[in-house]
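Amino Acid Chain and Its Fold in Token Form
===========================================
Structure side: the spatial fold of the chain, written down as a series of whole-number tokens.
Position: the record begins directly beneath this header, with no further notes in between.
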Amino acid sequence: MVQPVFVLVRSQMGENIGGAARAMWNFGLDRMRLVEPRDGWPNQKAVAMASGAGRLLDEAGVFATTAEAVGDCDYVFATTARARGLTKPVVTPERAMEMAREKIAAGDRVAVLFGPERAGLENEDIARANAIVNVPVNPDFASLNLAQCVLLTAYEWRRQGVAVQPERVELAGTDWASHVEIEKLADHYEARLDEAGFFFPATKAEGMKLNLRNLWSRMPLTRADVQVLHGIMRQMVRWKERGG
């Protein structure tokens, strides 16, 4: 799928450009453009920081002005943490990347501007954008590292394009226990606890057994868990039969 172009404007440190490239590639983005990087280009510190994302730096376009860098784009976002006195739509990174997908799907070319580390984008840059992207950070400390801002935006792009489970469990070499396996575990414990006189007094025995069954069914047990619990009960019975 076509993707947005990330434009780093007057970046001050090669390390941050490399970090931005790495953040982009983490989320499948590889279209980078640079506007007047302070320390020149190419930059070995950027290459070192980019790690496995060096290809983005090799293919990055370098431009003299912001206007040139976004000249072929139909819609431009400008990231900034501060109010700039310009009348523009202000959106979150999530909404910005949602809009980017909509516009790209309609055939538009989209760019996202990221400013220099010290002061961010200037009004002359933002004036060329169609909308402002504002990250809801701590108002008392709104400064974001360049690579951090790139990563946040790239993450939102990726998140909306792939099915990501909000929560999952890593099953380490096992699988969830079946209903039958849990029933057998419940039978095992009920039988042994009955022999031990656990269900006392008799008037409360049925209620206690029902609660115990309910406990097993509530627990998200794996097959390995079931085997361990069977083993615990067997060992306790052996220990008791040996006389403790």
